[in-house]
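__Protein archive entry__

___
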Amino acid sequence: RIHKTYYVELSKPLEEKHRLKLCEVIKLDGIRTAPAKIKFLKKSDFHKLYISIYEGKNRQIHNMFEHYGYFVRELMRVEYAGLKLDGLKEGRWRFLTAEEVSKLK
């Protein structure tokens, strides 16, 4: 299982009842998805959030939110297996540190 975290911007604020549902096992197209973890960027802004998952099936994030009537305006992976973007600009790259390489082994 590889932990992945995404920044998500939704078309409208995420309702609490839907946040709770996404944090449980749900079925999408007959396939069960593992529970997600959701963290809002600000307490007063419920359409920008981080979502952490362990699966990453094709279009899983889009499908999870569309299932409850939300459109994903922006989606960006910000962490993968403990490796974080941390200010790395789009289209740029950097070498992994020795510590990061050892995490991946």
About this structure: Residues 16-22 form the longest helix (7 residues). The helical segments are 16-22, 60-66, 98-104. The longest strand covers residues 45-53. The chain has one domain: 4-104.
